[in-house]
Amino acid sequence: MTSxxxxxxxxxxxxxxxxxxxxxxxxxxISREGEGPTVEGxxxxxxxxxxxxxxxxxxxxxxxxxxxxxxAAAEAYPAVLAGVAVHPNEVPRLAAEGRLDxxxxxxxxxxxxxxxxxxxxxxxxxxxTGPEGHxxxxxxxxxxxxxARRAGLALQVHDRDAxxxxxxxxxxxxxxxxxxMHCFSGDLDMARECVARGYHLSFSGxxxxxxxxxxxxxxxxxxxxxxxxxxxxxYLTPHPWRxxxxxPMLVPLTVRxxxxxxxxxxxxxxxxxxxxxxxxxxxx
Length: 284
Prior knowledge:
Blueprint: E1 21-26, H1 43-51, E2 54-60, H2 64-76, E3 80-84, H3 91-96, H4 100-110, E4 116-125, H5 134-151, E5 154-160, H6 163-173, E6 179-181, H7 188-197, E7 200-203, H8 213-220, E8 227-229, H9 251-262, H10 266-281
Parallel strand pairs: 1-2, 2-3, 3-4, 4-5, 5-6, 6-7, 7-8
Helix pairs in contact: 7-8, 9-10
């Protein structure tokens, strides 16, 4: 998650997609300015997204509070499924506070909830966490992988500046059959490796950025059946609204760029994105 240059004005709703799709990864509980919304407060965001053809979302928890929010949102809205985990950047803090084991135990409890379909986001982050926290991150990552396998749930992986280590841990620990590289940030070679392993690649608004040629090259070698789209809202807002607060309503901007890169009709890509999400997570 990176800060972005500011842009004046609120994003406008894009043209609706011809076939509804899923926002594979969003954080509707997080605000970039002040306190985040309540579960009741996200209703307008979901309505705005549905109006442009983003009629389902996966709400991702990153810490104990966020996990409870994700489950409550999934209970409150048929459009929402939940993912629960301890984010890799939260791991060293919770470990230092003596709270990590309890947090992971609660994640395991929540995986039994019928509206929880994802373990994640988990993984490694060598950008925000220094070397002193890497061992704790890796141990937590391995515990999440084992939990996803045991619970029979999809795994969503966070990877920032840790490509080789993420691939190593997934190989050594035995990635679940349904593994998703959230907000894919690798290059062409990494995309080919992930595809060879059968991982799904989820692309965010970063693929629309002018300087993101490596990402578009990675997208170009990803089969339709392994593709997902996401916001990672409120971050990573797609062009031309980079710098504004992101929301699921803006997914169509990313989808249209993806379709252009792949050389397929928007409707064809939308159909694949929807089918892939339902295959990974089950019906909403």
